[in-house]
Amino acid sequence: MLSVNFADRTGGLRVLCLGAHCDDIEIGCGGTIIRMASEYNIQQLKWLVFTSSEERSAEAKRSAACFVQGCKETEIIIKKFKDGFLPYEAEQIKNSLEELKPFNPDIIFTHYRHDLHQDHRTICELTWNTFRNNLILEYEIPKYDGDLGCPNWFVTLEEEVARKKVKIIMECFKSQASKHWFDDDTFFSLMRLRGIESASPTRYAEGFYVKKSVM
């Protein structure tokens, strides 16, 4: 497989992470953020979540702080839009993203365009609508709907990183513990499957969807 290396990016990387809900970024690309923060020079990282409650917001801030360790400058933003209603808040979400355009990130992590959750799709659509000349990696969220696809971009993860990702998620998001899908097995199984598909020498990987890329 062909590889991409961001290690020589002059001045360090600028990374933007977007999530509809408080645990989306962690589930979708948490391992990748941990790996990048340890291996590459991330000069600035912005972490933006759109829906939350008081309880969820506190969980998200605590979790995000664990994932962004190693990045030089970080900003964690948790907004309070209503869960499940993001398509009806598109104008305000678009305005929030427009405010980030001067940041001009080298990499943007956002939701998968064919995700069946309406909030996830809205964030993805507005990401592409706003950032026309940036590398966008769409991450995936396992769920009851059964909407996983076939990723075409993989980030291999050491087992230690995979375990750290799952440990942080399970410890920080106690409010989600009652959900039938929210457990260690779910998160490890998807990373193991993507590890198989990418022939990962470490057994684990996260999968992403890349619509357009220029070398």
Topology:
Elements: E1 13-19, H1 24-39, E2 42-51, H2 54-67, E3 73-81, H3 90-98, E4 107-111, H4 118-130, E5 135-139, E6 153-157, H5 159-172, H6 184-197, E7 204-209
Parallel strand pairs: 1-2, 1-4, 2-3, 4-5
Antiparallel strand pairs: 5-7, 6-7
Helix content: 25-40%
What structural category characterises the helix and strand content? alpha/beta
Low-confidence runs: none
Shape, per Cα inertia axes: globular
Biggest beta sheet attributes:
7 strands, mixed
Give me the number of helical elements: 6
Extended strand count: 7
Across the major sheet, the strand order is 3-2-1-4-5-7-6
What does this structure look like?
This protein is α/β, with parallel strands linked by helices and 215 residues long. It is 37% helix and 22% strand. The protein contains six helices and seven strands. It has a seven-stranded mixed sheet with strand order 3-2-1-4-5-7-6, with helices on both faces. α4 (118-130) links the parallel β4 (107-111) and β5. α2 (54-67) runs antiparallel to α5 and α5 (159-172) packs antiparallel against α6.
